[in-house]
Design brief:
The protein is α+β, with helices and mostly antiparallel strands and 86 residues long. The chain contains three helices and seven strands, in the order βββααβββαβ.
Length: 86
């Protein structure tokens, strides 16, 4: 699901941070990750296990969970978030 421009780029996987805000394409302003996870209907007990794939400079590219993988527009060169698998 990542853009070909991301191939060969160093990336890191990290756990989500409490109180983290994300700027989603197609929405105005920054949104709490907690609200995003609620909108994805991820059960509360699984939210602590969410991992974020990001560039070394901290740009988030995808959310990874047991329910699926959601990529950002920066990762795919499209708009919004998209579910890769469920």
């Amino acid at each position: 699901g990542l853009s070909l421009s991301r191939l060969g780029q160093e990336l890191r996987l990290r756990p989500r941070r409490e109180g983290e805000l994300l700027h989603l394409n197609g929405r105005v302003g920054h949104w709490p990750l907690k609200k995003l996870l609620q909108s994805l209907r991820l059960p509360t007990w699984q939210r602590e296990q969410v991992q974020i794939l990001e560039t070394l400079d901290g740009q988030p590219l995808a959310l990874l969970s047991s329910k699926g993988c959601w990529v950002t527009a920066q990762a795919t060169e499209s708009t919004g978030w998209g579910l890769l698998q469920e």
